[in-house]
Amino acid sequence: MKTLQNHLILYDADCPMCKAYTKAFTHTGMLDDGGRASYQDMPEAACPLVDRQRAVNEIALVDTQTGEVSYGVESLFKVIGNSFPLLKPLFGFAPFVWLMKKVYAFISYNRRVIIPAAHDLNGIQPSFRLGYRLIYLAFTWLVVGGILTVYAHHLSPLVPIGHPLREYFICGGQVLFQGIVISIYAPAKRWEYLGNMMTISLAGALLLLPVLLLAKFIALMPLICTLCFMAVAGLMFLEHIRRTKLMHLGWLLTVSWVVYRLLLLAVILN
């Protein structure tokens, strides 16, 4: 595998995804052993060459000899294309590049609500883009609603099967209900909280996929599926507490989160 020499990639030290794939670049020899550094600890030699805020939003790759800097998917394409030359025509295909830029931006501008930072290093934060946050909320709503709609059939007759769009209504209602609460309680953190909340819902829905897969091969009793659902709900509750603490929010959001679910349960069972 050909190494891209004399290049330094700058990643977000608070982003596990960023740390993982840049570490893979150096471990596999795609970059030199010293070819990665966090932008929080940006080397002094690179500082004059890098647009600092853009490097926070889009991972930067610095040519340490020429001073040339690339950002985002162009940085990734440069590293990967150097090691896998057969991919270079794809990386030069305009529609593919456009699509990957949108996917990259979708992940990058939402990465702190996908995996929240346990601490804030040097006060550097990615820019907030409301459009990408709204797209993220819509995406998670559709995925969670779809998975729960399928899972609901495995809970019957313990939990009655309702309207075909019931789970979508429930998930969307959660966003509206909690959105009202956070808007009254801490409006400045509205979009941060809603992004984290929907990430928790998405993670919970994904945890149910193994049960759905197992149900394809063996008949699972509704009680087993219900217990699995309750276990996932318990994990979601704990994660909600953890994330609200990271956002420095009090117990009100967790209480309202639980109240909403209890009200729904009462409505569904009656």
From TrEMBL:
<feature type="transmembrane region" description="Helical">
    <location>
        <begin position="219"/>
        <end position="238"/>
    </location>
</feature>
<feature type="transmembrane region" description="Helical">
    <location>
        <begin position="165"/>
        <end position="186"/>
    </location>
</feature>
<feature type="transmembrane region" description="Helical">
    <location>
        <begin position="193"/>
        <end position="213"/>
    </location>
</feature>
<keyword id="KW-0812">Transmembrane</keyword>
<protein>
    <submittedName>
        <fullName>DUF393 domain-containing protein</fullName>
    </submittedName>
</protein>
<feature type="transmembrane region" description="Helical">
    <location>
        <begin position="134"/>
        <end position="153"/>
    </location>
</feature>
<keyword id="KW-1133">Transmembrane helix</keyword>
<feature type="transmembrane region" description="Helical">
    <location>
        <begin position="250"/>
        <end position="269"/>
    </location>
</feature>
<dbReference type="InterPro" id="IPR007263">
    <property type="entry name" value="DCC1-like"/>
</dbReference>
<dbReference type="GO" id="GO:0015035">
    <property type="term" value="F:protein-disulfide reductase activity"/>
</dbReference>
<keyword id="KW-0472">Membrane</keyword>
<dbReference type="Pfam" id="PF04134">
    <property type="entry name" value="DCC1-like"/>
</dbReference>
